[in-house]
Write a structure and sequence with these properties.
Blueprint: E1 18-24, H1 29-40, E2 45-50, H2 60-81, E3 88-94, H3 95-99, E4 107-111, E5 127-132, H4 140-148, E6 152-154, H5 166-179
Parallel strand pairs: 1-2, 1-5, 2-3, 4-5, 4-6
Helix pairs in contact: 1-2
């Protein structure tokens, strides 16, 4: 028996916006859930972060095992939703190092409930970085560090969201905004 492929039609299922998500790590299933849902909503990269209030610290010998686990969650989420590009789940670095990175897109947002919000401008360039803090939120020093590195404060509503819920809401807003342009 022979099989011949006459034509291949590539379907692009990527999100209308390319988001690098900086997510402070959380314990247990919350991190799994955040990675799963962020992947389903089309995030391109997930940079795991540590912060002052981070609940989780990986030990070197467990780092790779946990990273493999989280990458497999991203793969399974892609299979479930039909996404054909798996986001990279990157090894944890400190939040302060990440916000200083020259590799980040020009559009940068930090979810900062109860903070004065600048006039958030979602420009026509749909590449951006999104910073989400841990349970208990980011410290004032961390928000200041983000602001000093061109992150705009973004308050996405009156409620304080859980760390695993915040990326769902923010990414949904971004997908809606850029898909209606």
């Amino acid at each position: 028996a022979f099989v011949s492929i006459d034509q291949f039609n590539s379907i692009d299922r990527t999100a209308p916006v390319k988001v690098i998500l900086g997510q402070v790590m959380s314990k247990g299933d919350r991190m799994d859930y955040a990675i799963q849902k962020a992947t389903e909503l089309g995030v391109t990269t997930i940079q795991l972060l540590t912060s002052e209030r981070c609940e989780m610290r990986l030990r070197y010998e467990r780092d790779q095992k946990k990273l493999d686990h989280w990458q497999s969650i991203a793969i399974a989420a892609c299979e479930q939703c039909g996404m054909n590009k798996v986001p990279n789940v990157l090894a944890p670095i400190s939040l302060t190092d990440w916000v200083k990175s020259a590799q980040l897109p020009q559009s940068r947002f930090v979810l900062a409930p109860n903070k004065d919000q600048e006039n958030v401008v979602l420009n026509s360039q749909p590449d951006l970085a999104l910073l989400i803090g841990p349970e208990g939120g980011l410290s004032e020093a961390e928000i200041d560090a983000a602001n000093q590195n061109h992150f705009q404060n973004w308050c996405i509503g009156d409620r304080v969201l859980r760390t695993e819920t915040a990326p769902i809401v923010a990414l949904s807003i971004l997908n809606y905004h850029f898909s209606t342009k």
